[in-house]
Design brief:
By secondary structure, this protein is α+β, with helices and mostly antiparallel strands. It has four helices and two strands; from the N terminus they run ααββαα. The chain has a two-stranded antiparallel sheet.
Length: 81
């Protein structure tokens, strides 16, 4: 959907995404630029990203035996309470 068409029909476009579950690709000059998705879809994407981040962190921890004390690290970074 062209960005100028979304601008002209923003309320209807939001209804299509929020209530009908459509995913709309926004185009500018014929090129895909962004997507409109529902808040539910966004929450699922963020959950998937979190799971990937946790898996990557666990893998990194398994690859290294180096450990740091949490409170000492906070103090070193100036994040102490």
């Amino acid at each position: 959907m062209a960005v100028n068409k979304v601008r002209d029909a923003l309320s209807d476009t939001i209804d299509r995404v929020a209530f009908k579950g459509e995913r709309i690709i926004l185009q500018r000059h014929g090129k895909d630029e962004a997507a409109l998705i529902s808040v539910g879809d966004l929450a699922l994407l963020e959950e998937l990203e979190d799971r990937e981040d946790i898996a990557a962190a666990r893998e990194a921890l398994n690859e290294s035996s180096e450990r740091h004390n949490y409170e000492e690290l906070r103090a070193e970074l100036g994040l102490s309470k």
